[in-house]
UniProtKB/TrEMBL annotation:
Pfam families: Peripla_BP_2. It comes from the Bacteria. Residues 1-19 form the signal peptide. InterPro entries: ABC_Transporter_SBP, ABC_transptr_periplasmic_BD. The keyword Repeat does not apply. The keyword Ligase does not apply. Keywords: Signal. It comes from Pseudoalteromonas rubra. Transmembrane segments: none annotated. This is Hemin ABC transporter substrate-binding protein. Residues 22-271 form the Fe/B12 periplasmic-binding domain.
């Protein structure tokens, strides 16, 4: 009788899709979605880019997703590894697969439809398709309509130092945020690229946006604005700077509506 009841319990857990899996996640966007799907209790370790939600930050770390070491991942005894494309070197991924551990790689989303597709795929892989569809519907309702273009111009600064400035252009999350809030992105080269100092001075952005990990690695907003590469910009001299959480400003996550709202609020403040 006990054996029969035990088999029933195992069957019920399997139908829920996440039985007793030990999951390691590499990639902040994936971690955010996995927890939003209610599967966080099965995650035993994450990478250092997984800064949301708070519960994820308290888990053991397996390094940065682009530089994974097989030993660190396997030390967590995972049954399933969920990782963004670009995680680890090819030989590391081969080593992980050779152990028999299931490894799922996912494309990094760069627009809203790709984010919805990633949520749906993770929902399927975690046997939680209904939760995934519910999350997609909630996000669709939470996303505001795009704001009309405003005269405000801005730059998203990924790095600023002696070697110059790197900014976010088209095909990046910051560019999507600018588009949603009606702010003109002065960077026109796709991806994260160096920005010519002379061109930056001529364009003269109304304000700057930067990820928190970059700003606070330099000592805070004031120190960031005083970087020599930015020193001649009026926006830097007056430190018209919006510091945004690194994950939500650079990664497509379920907190996208929050990121849009933050930038929209700063835009409104800048027009007063």
């Amino acid at each position: 009788m006990r054996k029969f009841m035990f088999l029933i319990l195992i069957s019920m857990l399997s139908q829920q899709g996440l039985a007793a899996q030990r999951i390691v996640v590499a990639g902040g966007s994936i971690t955010d979605i996995v927890f939003a799907l209610g599967a966080g209790e099965n995650v035993v370790a994450v990478d250092t880019s997984s800064t949301s939600p708070v519960a994820a930050t308290k888990l053991p770390k397996v390094g940065y997703y682009r530089d994974l070491a097989a030993e660190g991942v396997l030390s967590q005894h995972p049954e399933l590894i969920l990782a963004l494309q670009g995680s680890g070197r090819p030989e590391v991924l081969t080593q992980l697969r050779n152990t028999g551990v299931q490894l799922n790689l996912y494309d990094k989303p760069t627009n809203i439809n790709e984010l919805f597709n990633l949520i749906a795929q993770l929902g399927q892989d975690l046997s939680q398709p209904s939760q995934a569809q519910r999350l997609i519907n909630e996000l669709k309702q939470a996303l505001p309509p795009k704001a009309p273009p405003s005269p405000l111009r801005a730059l998203f600064i990924l790095s600023a130092g002696d070697r110059g400035v790197t900014v976010a252009g088209p095909e990046t999350v910051p560019d999507l945020l600018f588009g949603y809030t009606g702010v003109r992105n002065l960077a026109t080269a796709p991806g994260y690229k160096p920005f010519n100092r002379e061109a930056m001075l001529v364009s003269s952005p109304d304000f700057l946006v930067a990820p928190s990990h970059v700003v606070y690695s330099l000592g805070g907003p004031e120190q960031f604005c005083q970087q020599s590469a930015l020193a001649l910009l009026p926006a830097a001299q007056q430190c018209r700077l919006l510091v945004m959480d690194s994950l939500i400003s650079m990664g497509m996550t379920t907190r996208l509506p929050e990121a849009i709202a933050q930038l929209a609020a700063y835009r409104e403040q800048s027009t007063l």
